[in-house]
Amino acid sequence: MNTDEIVCPEAFRPDDPTIQIDPYPYYSVLRDQKPVLASTFGEQPCWIVSRRKDVAQILMDPATFSSNTTPIPSMLHTDPPDHRRLRRMVAAMFTRKAVAPYGPRISQIAEELLDAAMKRGRCDIVDDFAGPLTVATIALLLGIPVEDVERLRQLTRRSQDYVLAIRLGKEPTVEARSANQALLTFMSELARAETYTNGGVVSILAEQLAQAELNEEEYANFAVLLFVAGHTTTTNLIGNAIYMLADRPADLQRMRADESFIRPFLDEVLRTRPSFHRIMRVTTREVVVAGETIPQGAVVRLLLGSANRDPEFFDNPEMFRSRQATRIALRFRARDSHLLRQLAVATRGVTSAHRVGPAYHHSCVGCGKPASPIVRRYIQRIRIRPPPSATGLASVACPDASQVSRIRFRGGAGRAVK
Q1: Burial of 366 (0-12, 13-18, 19+ CB in 10 A)
Q2: What gap in Å lies between CA 137 and CA 190, rounded to an integer?
């Protein structure tokens, strides 16, 4: 779809799967014609904000646009000064310098996952590589025992449904509620039994709990947030990065030759295909945004995916420009998400994409435009069948399209690739 086919911007619904397949033409129309739109999400009334200057202004005004959007006690859902208090407890643990010592182990895990895939003769990049790699990485940073990692990963998938239901004012399913409670219980018992690794993030949170700087509920929800958000956002990042490499073989070659190129490539992936497209706020008073009056207590959904392609701020915003310095994108922006961006960058998720890429990029050229990653609609399946003669993914120089059997996107039907 292109912008000329969109007759009415009011037709935009952020939870419409047909729109989520490719929301960018809608974003363009919204910015031009209806930068603040009264809409619904999961039957919940909300206001959609799409222009960068408005999104940025809202993110920097917590007094008017509160993060307290759910009763779940979490750093993401608190306003200053509590937010600053929680963030400062662990922020230093997610700097690139602090994470650097884990680099060799992360690389080893990546190699092991790829070697296992080669032995099987098939690989789903998300399920067999990105997911296990990122969950193992965040477990290392937090200090969670390795034997618990896979079980926690499975619980994470189901617990996300619990959070979404709560935010929409709905009753969570029994399965989702049970998964969320299991995660909280695990983190509480981890601190109580002191079975975490000393020096990890959980050990710092447990110390704050012992000193009464955190209560038990804050501790458990904080630990769960870091685990869940840390690996899900980076899993999405790897999937998005590998997809982008599919059409950019020159970038792939440059990345393999020069690792300093990874960071600008990562920044541009985060701008053009953020790990999530929306951020939610609630108004504390009646306020006017772009000429529209938003009432007190209204849900406001900020379209990061649109703000990052605003032509008033970016030159040629629809173009992926990995070789050029671009202006700062609204990624994990402002107080509520700076820590999570540190985490995603620190884990160096894209460094693994440059090894997987050779087995993937030729296979995807000409396969059509994928569903655009959005909240709960990220790339879920990228299946690769390497040639039988290959001894490693890095050795696959030029596979044909038959080696990718299926691409599937979270929240929608799978898509066969021929």
Answers
A1: exposed
A2: 18
Could you tell me which of 259, 275, 417, 272 has the C-alpha nearest to residue 353? Answer: 259
Q: Residue 191 in contact with residue 203, Cβ under 8 Å? A: no
Contact present, 281 and 61 (Cβ < 8 Å): no
Q: Which tens digits make up the pLDDT trace of 167-209?
A: 778 899 999 999 999 999 999 999 998 888 888 899 999 999 9
Tokens encoding 364: 């995807």
Residues in Cβ contact with 406 at an 8 Å cutoff, skipping those fewer than 6 apart: 381, 383, 414, 415, 416, 417
Q: Classify 416 as helix, strand or coil.
A: strand
Q: State how far the alpha carbon of 313 is from the alpha carbons of 226, 266, 308, 330, 335, in Å.
A: 31, 19, 8, 11, 21
Q: What is the C-alpha separation between 61 and 348, in angstroms, rounded?
A: 31
Residue 368 has φ and ψ, to the nearest 5°, of: 95, 165
- 334 backbone φψ class: left, alpha, beta (φ>0; ψ -120 to 50): left
Phi–psi pair at 195, nearest 5 degrees: -95, 10
pTM, two decimal places: 0.78
Q: In what helix (H) or strand (E) does residue 223 lie, and over which residues does it extend?
A: helix 216-246
| Domains by residue range for the chain, with CATH | 3-416 (1.10.630.10)
Q: What is the pLDDT of residue 52?
A: 95
DSSP sequence for 179-220? HHHHHHHHHHHHHHHT-SPTTSHHHHHHHHHHTTSS-HHHHH
Helix 131-142 with 216-246: angle, nearest 10 deg: 140
Cis peptide bond N-terminal to 9, omega within 30: no
